[in-house]
Amino acid sequence: MPAMVQDDSKHNLIQPNALHQYTVTPADLPLSCPMPGMFLWNSHPKVYLAIEAAGWAKCSYCGAEYTLHRTPHEVIQPGQ
């Protein structure tokens, strides 16, 4: 059975759902809320957000808004 507690002793995790707006980059794709760098124990179930096409997505659980920041030369390929 997998551990129910996330080991944060080696990571600097941030509080989930603490902010209402996040800026992400193509390195964060595929985008999920909560993001991998957030504590998981006190958050909602992980959901994946389709942000590639519009450059913006909103989590239906917590209302967090994500904006995709990319340079003009970065192109997101389908399936990335």
The pLDDT mean sits at 78
Residue share in β-strands:
15-25%
By secondary-structure content and strand pairing, the structural class works out as mainly beta
- CA-based gyration radius: 14 Å
Query: Helix and strand string, N-terminal first?
Result: EEEEE
Number of helices: 0
In this structure, how is the largest beta sheet organized? Answer: 3 strands, mixed
Spatial sequence of strands, sheet with the most strands: 1-5-4
Give a count of the beta strands, DSSP E runs of length 2 or more. 5
How far the N terminus sits from the C terminus, by CA atoms, comes to 30 Å
Shape: globular
Helix content: under 10%
Report the uncertain regions.
1-8
Pick out its properties:
0% helix; 5 strands; single chain; three-stranded mixed sheet; mainly beta; globular; disordered N terminus; 80 residues; two-stranded antiparallel sheet
Describe what you observe in this structure.
This protein has 80 residues and is mostly beta strands. It has a domain at 21-68. Helices cover 0% and strands 21% of the residues. The chain contains no helices and 5 strands. It has strands at residues 21-24, 31-33, 47-49, 56-58, 65-68. The strands form 2 sheets. A 3-stranded mixed beta sheet has the order 1-5-4, with no helix packed on it. Strand 4 and strand 5 (65-68) form a beta hairpin.
